Amino acid sequence: MAKNRQIIIYGVALAFLIFLLKWLEMRFIIIDNQLELYAGLIAVIFTALGIWLALKLRKPKIHTVIVEKEVFASPNGDFTINQDELRKLNLSKRELEVLQLMAEGLSNQEIAEKLFVSLNTIKTHSAQIFEKMEVKRRTQAVEMAKRLSLIP
Amino acid sequence: MAKNRQIIIYGVALAFLIFLLKWLEMRFIIIDNQLELYAGLIAVIFTALGIWLALKLRKPKIHTVIVEKEVFASPNGDFTINQDELRKLNLSKRELEVLQLMAEGLSNQEIAEKLFVSLNTIKTHSAQIFEKMEVKRRTQAVEMAKRLSLIP
DNA sequence: GATAAAATCACCCTAAAGTATGACTGTAAA
DNA sequence: TTTACAGTCATACTTTAGGGTGATTTTATC
């Protein structure tokens, strides 16, 4: 089959390599090499057998059936910020504000414009946020904030 | 680099096998009356090699079946993915996978390592995701995904 | 077997994010 | 009034994200 091209190519390459090896040995070492040829042949044959076995015994494709008919409960509209966690993290008011805007997917530039401050200020705030929350990226900060109910 | 990984693996494997073969030959010279054992060993090793190769190259991808049965007003606790929205966005399985890892706050590099593919592949996927979701940034994609219940 | 979609990867380049450091100001607490 | 801190901003630098393009290979489907 054409779709197993890679396997066939590798198999042929392996066979070729082994035969090349044997040929080289025959060229320079004048000994009884029948045995080595025999071994090489076995190797090639059983490699092929292994490939064949694996392909043959492979599990058939799983048919995916997606059943629908779902009824969703409307998410509770009441959100209360977790003051405990907020205090633990020791985030300032401004930092929480920046964090919320981050969670809305705004860029630092957009946050800066929204809060009427400079981009550098937002960078400083975000760096502070990441340090306090012990995360490395804004996405992690947002994930954590949602998990801790610091943000809806 | 990811592009050289397979080549390195094959090279090392091949080198190891040849070395093993030589070692077996040396052993055989000493114990020269066990031809069957020698041949058998080679057969087993190379059958295993063949199976390993086939499995490695064929990448037996398991379809992640998401069967969804009539859920009545699921309360807070378990999460059911919104198949309708998912179909509307036309996100592929892989793209959804990447999106989920994004939502966990992983960087593209980390996602690449987790999924055993290259960074460029993840970039391509994420670009596709942003285009399909009509967003500009990963944070927006995550926000939207959570809002649409594509992600817990 | 042809075809389409999905997945993979590369290269180049720009934009955005993040790090590190230092500095200035206003306010509130000690 | 000194101290501490929040908030502001800057400059320089590194890293990560994202855009655009093109290509190959798998996989599914007709």
Q: Element order, helices and strands of chain A?
A: HHHHHHH
Number of distinct beta strands of chain A? 0
Query: What oligomeric state do these chains adopt?
Result: homodimer
Count of DSSP-assigned helices of chain A: 7
- Count of domains of chain A: 2
Kindly report the name of the CATH homologous superfamily of the largest domain in chain A: Winged helix-like DNA-binding domain superfamily/Winged helix DNA-binding domain
Strand content of chain A is: under 5%
Structural class of chain A: mainly alpha
Q: Taking all residues together, what is the mean pLDDT of chain A?
A: 72
Judging by the overall fold, what is the CATH architecture of the largest domain in chain A? Orthogonal Bundle
Shape of chain A: elongated
Q: Which fold name corresponds to the CATH topology of the largest domain in chain A? A: Arc Repressor Mutant, subunit A
Q: What about the largest sheet of chain A? A: none
Intertermini distance of chain A: 54 Å
What is the helix content of chain A? 55-70%
CATH class membership of the largest domain in chain A: Mainly Alpha
- Unreliable segments of 5+ consecutive residues of chain A: 1-6, 56-74
Largest interface: A-B, 58 and 61 residues
